[in-house]
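ok trying this again, last paste got cut off
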Amino acid sequence: MTIMNTTKEVGIVGYGAYVPRYRLPASEIARVWTEGQGGLPIKEKAVAGLDEDTVTISIEAARNALKRAGINPQEIRAVWAGSESHPYAVKPTSTVVAEAIGATPDVQAADFEFACKAGTETLQAAIGFVGSGMAKYALGIGADTAQGRPGDALEYTTGSGGAAYLIGPKEESLTYFEGTYSYVSDTPDFFRRPYERYPQHGSRFTGEPA
C-alpha cells in the first residue's frame, strides 16, 4: 500500500452539502413496477427538481462550503467537479460553478468523471494541489443526479445530492490529512455508452454492499 503524502500539511477549511427537497418513496417505485413492497433497500430517496442538475447541486454545495470557511472566493485557485451525470458532454460543470461562486477568472477548473468515485478524486487532487504549494485553497466537489433506468435496481438505490470540500492550510482547517490512498481497477460492471440515456450494469458488483 502506497500512502500519498504532501509537502505542506493541509486540511478541510470548509465543507458544504446540498440535497434536493423532493423525495420519492421506495414504496411508490415498488407499487409501479412490482406487486409487493417486501425487501425495499431504502425508505425514500432525494430527487432533483425540474430546474436542478449536477451543476446547480454543485453550486449550492460550494456556496455552503464557502459560507462555512468564510474566505474570499477570489483566493481559490482550483475548482474541480466530479460526477457521472454532468449535464453537458463538452461544457465543463466546474467553469459554471467557479463563475457562480465568484472564483473566476484567475482559477484552474476541470471536470472529473468516475462511477461512484469522482468526488473523492477531486478531493485528492485538491489535497495534492494545495499541498504542493501551487495554491492556498482548492475546491473539490462530488455531485450526481439519479440515472437509473425505470424499473431497474438502481432506481431504488440512487438519488441526487452533492458535497463540496474546500482544502487549505492546516492551521486554518477544521481537520487535516495525514495521508491519502487511492485504489482503482478496470471493473466493467457499470458504464454508459455515447448516446445512451441510462447506464448499464452487470449486477455482479453493483448490488453488493461497498
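PB: full thing came through this time. Helices lie at 26-33, 54-69, 93-100, 118-131, 154-157.
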